[in-house]
């Protein structure tokens, strides 16, 4: 039931909530690549009007997570090996540049953010290794938080936001391919934290390249993305 008050504020709140839910469902594969997004079904699933859904899906189309098909409606963007490689290359380019800036400018507060973010991620990686049934969304959120912490002293909000959007697209491929490199990825995360504390931007770039390219190779080896 919509609260009384300014309708535009209420509608904006509902629309933003629907945007975040649909976006998350795309990133985590609950809305599958190529799936037709039927407005009549979605309005019930997400509790919004058709007009609000059109605005939300158009916004997601601008992020290339949804494809607008003119009069035929919308569908979830497809995936491909070529697109994964493009996304990975862009992520590497952005993150290496942001890391260099962040390592140069980071202070003790930044170091604390990096260490704290790594602590949460490492704990989740250990839990995942121990029980084999991880909370995927929490795991990937901690992964995102760690990489964002590494670049959080870069001095550019736009760079961080652009990196975050690209990281999400890379994350989508990780989830769809169910990729987990286990101890290798955990070791690389630890190395990245250590290079941050020592301000070794060049070494961090090498570790990050191995980390991202290794993720791509592992995802493609699973055979779920062609």
Please explain how this structure is put together.
With 226 residues, this protein is mainly alpha-helical. The chain has two domains: 7-76, Winged helix-like DNA-binding domain superfamily/Winged helix DNA-binding domain (Arc Repressor Mutant, subunit A); 81-221, GntR ligand-binding domain-like (Four Helix Bundle (Hemerythrin (Met), subunit A), Up-down Bundle). It is built from nine helices and three strands, in the order H-E-H-H-E-E-H-H-H-H-H-H. The protein has a three-stranded antiparallel beta sheet with strand order 1-3-2. The longest helix has 25 residues, at 81-105. Mean pLDDT is 89; it is low at 1-10.
Strands side by side in the biggest sheet: 1-3-2
What is the H level of CATH, i.e. the homologous superfamily of the largest domain?
A: GntR ligand-binding domain-like
Beta-strand content = under 5%
- In whole angstroms, the N-to-C terminal distance is 44 Å
CATH architecture of the largest domain: Up-down Bundle
Number of domains: 2
Can you tag this structure with a few keywords?
single chain, 226 residues, mainly alpha, Arc Repressor Mutant, subunit A, Four Helix Bundle (Hemerythrin (Met), subunit A), three-stranded antiparallel β-sheet, 73% helix, globular, disordered N terminus
């Amino acid at each position: 039931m919509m609260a009384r008050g300014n309708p535009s504020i209420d509608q904006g709140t509902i629309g933003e909530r629907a945007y975040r839910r649909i976006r998350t469902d795309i990133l985590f594969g609950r809305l599958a690549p190529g799936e037709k997004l039927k407005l009549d079904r979605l309005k019930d699933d997400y509790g919004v009007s058709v007009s609000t859904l059109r605005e939300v899906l158009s916004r997601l189309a601008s992020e290339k997570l949804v494809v607008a098909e003119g009069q035929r409606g919308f569908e979830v963007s497809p995936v491909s090996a070529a697109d994964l490689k493009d996304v990975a290359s862009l992520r590497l380019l952005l993150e290496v540049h942001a890391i260099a800036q962040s390592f140069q400018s980071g202070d003790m507060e930044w170091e604390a953010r990096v260490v704290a973010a790594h602590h949460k991620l490492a704990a989740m990686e250990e839990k995942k290794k121990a029980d084999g049934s991880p909370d995927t969304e929490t795991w990937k959120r901690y992964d995102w938080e760690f990489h964002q912490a590494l670049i959080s002293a870069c001095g550019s909000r736009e760079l961080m936001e652009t990196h975050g959007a690209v990281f999400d697209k890379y994350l989508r491929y990780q989830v769809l391919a169910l990729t987990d490199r286990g101890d290798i990825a955990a070791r690389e995360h630890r190395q990245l934290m250590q290079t941050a504390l020592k301000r070794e931007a060049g070494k961090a770039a090498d570790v990050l390249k191995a980390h991202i390219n290794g993720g791509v190779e592992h995802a493609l080896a699973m055979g779920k993305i062609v």
